[in-house]
C-alpha cells in the first residue's frame, strides 16, 4: 500500500495544484490547469505513472512537516544519522508559465540527497523524450514541454526512464530545483529566481491571510481552511474547484470514484457567505461573477457544475491504464453528472445572488434578469422529479431538499421585490409558488409517524441535507418538525459519531443512488449537524462535535470529502472544498459571526 490520502499536503499557484507526500514525493500534478491531464499520476497508479521524489537517500517519511506560517509554502524536515535537511516546496503565483519549486537546505551535518523525476504526460500514459539544453533537462511529448534546472547546477543522469540527481548538502548549503511547464511549440520560458519567488510567495500569502477578520476560537483552523479554498480558486476566472483530484475513492476498492476538478453550483451560497463574512470581498465578487457567466443562457440548460472557465461539456470517460488508488477502479476523467437535472441549483444560485446583494457586494445589472428567468422556469418545472443534491444515478425522485431549495428560490425573489418595488417580477405568482411548495413539502416530505422529514416523497430513507431546513429559513429552528428531523438524522445516519449523507436500508430494489458499494461519513454533513444542534439550542453538543471534527484534519490541517472512523482514514477527493466550507461555516455560527437566513 502506498501513501494514505491524509499523508498528502497541498501546494498550488491559484491555477493548478500538486499533492506532496510525507516521503517527499509529488504524486499528483495537472498542468497547466486543475482539469488538465496529469503529468504526475502515481496517486492513481504506481511510480511508473509519474512522480517526483526529493528526499535524503535511503530515507522514508519526513520527521515533521508544516506550512510556513499562514501560507501555502510547505516545509518538510528529515532528521538522519548524518544530519538534518529540509525541503521547501511551493508553486509561485505564475506570471505566465506554471513553476514547481523545491529548495533543499542543509540544517546540520552533511546529508546525501536523491531526486528521482518521472514525467508521464496524459495521466501517466505518455513517456516524453528528454534532452539536455542550456543547462536544463527538457521533456517533450505532443503539446507538453517541461524544463528542469537546479541552482546551483547538480549533475543529472537517466535511469529506468527517469531523471536522477545525487548530491550532498552540508549545513547552510542550498540547492533549488525549478520545474516549469509550457506549450511545446513555444520558446523556453523565462528563468525564475527560486529564492526571490519564495520570499514573494510568503509575503503574498501572509498578507492575504492577514485580511481574515475572524477572531473566534480555532482561528488557525479557519485560516487554513480559507487558504485551502483560495488554493482551489482558478484565479483567471474566480471559479473554485471542488477538489484538485479525480477518482480518490469513497470506499477503498470500490467504484464510487468521481472527478471533482470542476466548479459546483451547490457550493455557491455557503462559499459566498463565508468569504463575505470574513472580509474577502474581492474573492466573493470574483466567485459571484464566475457564477453569473457560467449560468447565463436558457434556464432549462442550467448545469450543476461547470469547468473552471465556465465550460459546459465535461464528458466522463475511464482511464484504463491507471489501476486506481489502492485498486479502486475505474479512474474517471470528466463527470457525467453535469448533465443531470437538479432543481436545488436554481435555489442555490438565487440565494447566492441574494446574499451578495444583502451584503453590499454590488448589483450587476443583468443579475436580476437571470434570476427572473430562473423563477419563470421553476414555475413550470418545480413539480418534476430530479436527481437531487447528491447526484443520484438511479431513478429521478421528488427529493425533499430539492423542493426546499425551490422554496428558497421563490422566497429570495419575493424578498427582493418587496425590498425594491422597482424590480420587474411576478410578485403574486412567486408568493403563490412559495406557499404551494412549502405546503407540499410539509405534507408529502414529512413522516409524521416518525417525526422527521425524509429523503424524498413517500420514502422512509433519511437525508442529511434536511438538516439545512432551518439554515435556509424554511422552518424556524424551534419547530418540532425541525427538532425531530435533527434527532432522527443524528440517530439513523450515525457512522461512529459522524454522519453519512443518506441511508439505503429501506430502498426496494437496491441503493437509492443506483451505485453499488458503500462510502464513509460525509464530513460536511457532520458540520451541518453541528450547525443544526447549535440552532436547536444544543450548543454544548455542537461544540463537542465541532471539536471532534477538527481532530480529523491531517497534520497540515486538510480534510478530504469523507472519513472512515473504523480505520481512521480520510476518503474521497482531497482536499475537499465542501468540507472546508463546512468548517468555516460552523466556526462562524458557533462564534456568533455567522447567521442563518
Characteristic key phrases:
single chain; alpha+beta; three-stranded antiparallel sheet
Task: Put the structure in a nutshell.
With 597 residues, this protein is an alpha+beta fold. Helix content is 30%, strand content 22%. The model has no long low-confidence stretch (mean pLDDT 95).
Low-confidence stretches: none
- The shape, in one word, is elongated
Q: How many helices in DSSP terms?
A: 13
Distance between the termini: 46 Å
Helix fraction, binned, reads 25-40%
Global Rg: 25 Å
Overall strand count: 28
Overall pLDDT confidence:
95
Bin the strand percentage: 15-25%
The major beta sheet can be summarized as: 15 strands, antiparallel
Q: Which oligomerization state do the chains in this entry correspond to? A: single chain
Helix and strand content put the structural class at alpha+beta
Write structural notes for this entry.
The chain is α+β, with helices and mostly antiparallel strands and about 600 residues long. Helices cover about 30% and strands about 20% of the residues. The strands form seven sheets. The chain has a 15-stranded antiparallel sheet that branches. Helix 6 (about 345-360) runs parallel beside helix 8 and helix 7 packs across helix 8. The longest helix is centred in the C-terminal third of the chain and has 20 residues, at about 400-420. The model has no long low-confidence stretch (mean pLDDT about 95).
Amino acid at each position: 500500500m502506498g501513501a494514505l490520502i491524509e499523508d498528502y499536503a497541498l501546494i498550488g499557484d491559484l491555477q493548478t495544484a500538486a499533492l506532496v507526500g510525507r516521503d517527499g514525493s509529488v504524486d499528483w500534478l495537472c498542468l497547466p490547469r486543475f482539469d488538465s491531464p496529469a503529468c504526475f499520476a502515481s496517486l492513481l497508479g504506481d511510480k511508473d505513472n509519474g512522480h517526483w521524489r526529493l528526499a535524503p537517500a535511503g530515507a522514508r517519511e519526513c520527521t515533521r512537516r508544516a506550512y510556513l506560517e499562514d501560507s501555502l509554502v510547505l516545509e518538510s524536515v528529515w532528521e538522519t544519522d548524518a544530519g538534518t535537511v529540509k525541503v521547501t516546496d511551493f508553486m509561485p503565483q505564475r506570471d505566465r508559465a506554471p513553476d514547481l519549486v523545491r529548495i533543499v537546505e542543509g540544517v546540520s551535518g552533511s546529508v546525501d540527497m536523491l531526486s528521482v523525476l518521472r514525467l508521464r504526460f496524459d495521466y501517466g500514459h505518455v513517456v516524453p523524450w528528454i534532452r539536455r539544453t542550456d543547462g536544463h533537462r527538457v521533456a517533450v511529448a505532443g503539446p507538453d514541454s517541461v524544463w528542469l534546472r537546479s541552482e546551483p547546477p547538480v549533475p543529472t543522469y537517466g535511469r529506468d526512464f527517469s531523471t536522477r540527481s545525487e548530491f550532498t548538502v552540508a549545513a547552510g548549503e542550498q540547492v533549488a530545483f525549478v520545474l516549469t511547464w509550457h506549450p511545446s511549440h513555444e520558446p523556453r520560458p523565462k528563468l525564475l529566481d527560486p529564492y526571490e519567488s519564495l520570499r514573494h510567495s510568503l509575503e503574498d500569502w501572509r498578507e492575504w491571510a492577514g485580511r481574515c477578520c475572524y477572531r473566534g476560537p480555532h482561528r488557525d483552523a479557519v485560516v487554513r481552511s480559507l487558504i485551502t479554498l483560495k488554493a482551489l480558486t482558478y484565479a483567471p476566472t474566480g471559479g473554485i474547484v471542488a477538489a484538485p483530484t479525480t477518482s480518490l475513492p469513497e470506499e477503498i476498492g470500490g467504484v464510487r470514484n468521481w472527478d471533482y476538478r470542476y466548479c459546483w453550483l451547490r457550493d455557491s451560497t455557503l462559499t459566498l457567505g463565508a468569504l463575505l463574512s470574513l472580509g474577502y470581498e474581492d474573492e466573493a465578487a470574483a466567485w459571484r461573477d464566475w457564477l453569473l457567466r457560467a449560468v447565463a443562457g436558457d434556464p432549462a440548460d442550467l448545469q450543476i457544475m461547470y469547468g473552471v472557465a465556465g465550460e459546459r461539456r465535461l464528458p466522463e470517460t475511464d482511464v484504463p491504464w491507471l489501476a486506481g488508488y489502492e485498486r479502486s477502479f475505474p479512474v474517471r476523467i470528466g463527470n457525467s453528472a453535469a448533465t443531470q437535472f437538479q432543481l436545488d441549483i436554481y435555489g442555490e444560485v438565487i440565494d447566492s445572488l441574494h446574499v451578495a446583494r444583502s451584503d453590499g457586494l454590488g448589483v450587476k445589472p443583468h443579475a436580476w434578469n437571470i434570476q427572473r428567468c430562473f423563477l419563470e422556469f421553476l414555475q413550470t418545472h418545480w413539480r418534476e422529479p430530479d436527481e437531487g443534491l447528491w447526484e443520484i444515478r438511479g431513478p429521478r425522485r421528488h427529493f425533499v431538499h430539492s423542493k426546499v431549495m425551490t422554496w428558497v428560490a421563490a422566497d429570495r425573489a419575493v424578498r427582493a421585490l418587496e425590498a425594491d418595488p422597482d424590480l420587474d417580477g411576478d410578485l403574486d405568482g412567486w408568493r403563490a409558488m412559495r406557499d404551494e411548495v412549502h405546503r407540499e413539502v410539509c405534507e408529502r416530505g414529512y413522516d409524521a409517524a416518525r417525526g422527521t422529514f425524509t429523503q424524498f416523497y413517500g420514502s422512509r430513507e433519511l437525508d442529511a441535507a434536511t438538516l439545512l431546513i432551518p439554515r435556509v429559513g424554511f422552518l424556524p429552528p424551534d419547530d418540532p418538525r425541525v427538532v425531530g428531523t435533527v434527532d432522527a438524522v443524528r440517530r439513523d445516519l450515525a457512522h461512529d459519531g459522524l454522519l453519512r449523507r443518506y441511508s439505503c436500508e429501506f430502498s426496494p430494489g437496491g441503493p437509492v443512488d443506483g451505485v453499488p458499494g458503500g462510502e464513509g461519513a460525509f464530513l460536511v454533513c457532520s458540520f451541518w449537524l453541528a450547525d443544526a444542534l447549535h440552532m436547536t439550542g444544543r450548543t454544548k453538543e455542537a461544540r463537542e462535535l465541532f471539536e471532534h471534527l477538527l481532530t480529523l484534519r491531517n497534520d497540515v490541517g486538510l480534510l478530504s470529502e469523507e472519513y472512515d472512523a473504523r480505520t481512521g482514514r480520510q476518503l474521497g477527493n482531497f482536499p475537499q472544498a465542501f468540507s472546508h466550507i463546512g468548517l468555516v461555516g460552523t466556526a462562524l455560527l458557533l462564534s456568533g459571526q455567522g447567521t442563518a437566513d
